[in-house]
Amino acid sequence: MSELDAAAQKRTADRRAQQGGNETPFPDRRKAPRPPLAEIRRGGTLRLMPPVVVSGVVRVVEFLLIVLLGLAIYLSYVEYEGDRTHLFYLAAIFVAALGYMMIADVFSLYQVPSFNTFVPSFTRVVIAWTIVMAGLMSIAFFSKISADFSRVWIATWYVSGLGVLFVERLLVSVMARQWLKEGRLYRRAVIVGGGPEAENLIKALEASADADIRIVGVFDDRGADRVAPIIAGYPKLGNINELVEYARTSRLDLLIVTLPITAEQRLLHLLKKLQVLPVDIRLSVHGSPLRFRPRTYSYIGNVPFIDLTDKPIANWDVVKKWLFDKIVASIAVVALAPVMALIAIAVKLDSKGPVLFKQKRLGFNNETIGVLKFRSMYVEGESPDGLEQVTRDDPRVTRVGRILRRTSLDELPQFFNVLKGDLSLVGPRPHALQSKAADKLYHDAVDGYFARHRVKPGVTGWAQINGWRGETDTAEKIERRVEHDLYYIENWSVMFDLYILLMTPLALVRGENAY
Fold first, then answer.
1. Which of 128, 352, 376, 474 is the most exposed place for a label (fewest CB within 10 A)?
2. What one-character DSSP code corresponds to residue 374?
3. What is the pLDDT of residue 89?
4. Which residues of 276-287 are buried (b: 16+ CB within 10 A; e: fewer)?
């Protein structure tokens, strides 16, 4: 059990004691049986390595290794004998690389289990590579062009290819075992709803060899008189409200709901609570008499589910957004370095105090992050928690600060937050911990407010370029901002991010609501 999980359980137990609750406290997970799907490690701060991404990277690496090795041997050994022969060699190299990938895919060499078992998987690698070489020579023979190819080149490429793939697969196996030990190659899942339905579902998942999940436990609103403390070997960890808190402090990737598909109102009520979490939500239809078209279902192993909610940005989308953020932020830091230097000098000359101001704000999954800004207020007037919002003609703002805030130049240091990983270039703007709309905290003013934290916050966002920035003196302003944030989350794409970045300067020129 990780420190994060233990802390979450302790807070829940303390709260129950203060409220005089008589529910059974969290059971000790170590006392429960550990079936095959038992979690390996509760990596609270570790992120999932999506199997589809890992598989894709291995595919690309092996393709490049085969191509580069074939080219290197050809260029270093075979004499140039004209364009026709040169094209034959190039075509043979790429056909062999593509053929290997196809055969390796048939042999399931790009699945997570093959990464973890080196000897059986490398045996299949040898077979796949041998089939490719044999096929290549057969094509050359029957095409009557075998005389144009160097036998030494083919033999050297075959042997050295086995050696390179041996080293590559060994490294992949070592890394995969470490990631499996940390729980990074499997989705961490909880079962929502106990009883016989949950027990039958867990048994079905355990019987499915291809299930890519590790079950953490069960959450259910019903008391110990209706739901046992241990369900199919897994502990009941709390109720639905405690599930939301648990997901804030320990990595969860998947929620599996076992309510009957006909329990419409209960499902809607449950989704309203859980949709704020950055996780996939699946409804179990295992054992349900209702049958839909096959394309309606998704599967974990061979167990069918209906998709209720997906992570907003997952798998390769995470990689694309990460690369977009790092590349653009790095270019921006270099290009804007002279501007930031001049702003720093102006801030220092205008008033006493540090150049930068760090404010605690809510980030991804309600994590607290420190957001950097150029200081735009007198030191004695700063509000670290955001309780006192800046208003028009606010006396706490310095002369230089008024210019910086109106043009949003005070937020340029947030490119360093992007490089650090706390922020994205584009996303819902992070709000200070005590920000209010009128007299209400944001999450009290807007129903489902925390759903905007399912992605990383951004330096700029869809709400900001549509005029919803600055002071939120009415509930309507924060409602419109959240509506735009949720629209962005549901419609994200790299091109959407690029459009928002390009439109941001125009929005800053308008300078609406920024004091």
1. 352
2. E
3. 85
4. bbbbbbbbbbbe
SS (H, E, C) 456-472: CCEEECHHHHCCCCCCC
Tokens matching residue 281: 């939500």
pTM over 0.70: yes
Burial 342-353 (b: 16+ CB within 10 A, else e): ebbebbeebeeb
Tokens of 468: 């919803």
Distance CA 499, CA 32 (A): 52
Rounded to whole angstroms, the Cα distance separating 421 from 34 reads 35
Quote the longest CA-to-CA distance of the chain: 88
The pLDDT score that the predictor gives to residue 37 is: 44
pLDDT of residue 147: 59
Tens of pLDDT, residues 309-341: 888 888 899 999 999 999 999 999 999 999 999
User: Which parts of 310-387 are beta strand (E)?
Assistant: 356-362, 368-374
Q: Is 496 left (phi over 0), alpha (psi -120 to 50) or beta?
A: alpha
DSSP bridge partners of 458: 424
With H, G, I as helix, E, B as strand and everything else as coil, classify residue 218. Answer: strand
Regions in the chain scoring below 70 on pLDDT:
1-46, 80-82, 144-148, 289-290, 381, 383-391, 470-471, 511-515
pLDDT attached to residue 13: 44
> What is the strand order of the sheet 230-231 is part of?
230-231, 234-238, 213-219, 187-192, 254-257, 280-284, 303-309, 298-300
Q: How far is CA 41 from the centre of its chain?
A: 18
Find tokens 């979450």 and name the residue: 8
As a whole number of Å, the end-to-end CA separation of the chain is 47
Would you state the pLDDT for residue 81?
A: 67
Contact between 142 and 87 (Cβ < 8 Å): no
Dihedral of the CA atoms 491, 492, 496, 501 (nearest 10)? 130
Q: Look up residue 348 and give its two tokens.
A: 């220092």
Q: How long, in residues, is the chain? A: 515
Read off φ and ψ for residue 309, nearest 5 degrees.
-145, 140
Residue 92: closest CA among 28, 155, 139, 44: 139
List, in sequence order, the alpha helices (H) in 43-150.
Answer: 51-77, 83-106, 112-116, 118-142
Cα angle 35-38-40, degrees, rounded to a multiple of 5: 135
Q: What is the pLDDT of residue 42?
A: 38
Residue 206 phi, psi (nearest 5): -65, -30
For the chain, count helices (H), then strands (E). Answer: 17, 14
Distance from C-alpha of 486 to C-alpha of 480, rounded to nearest angstrom = 10
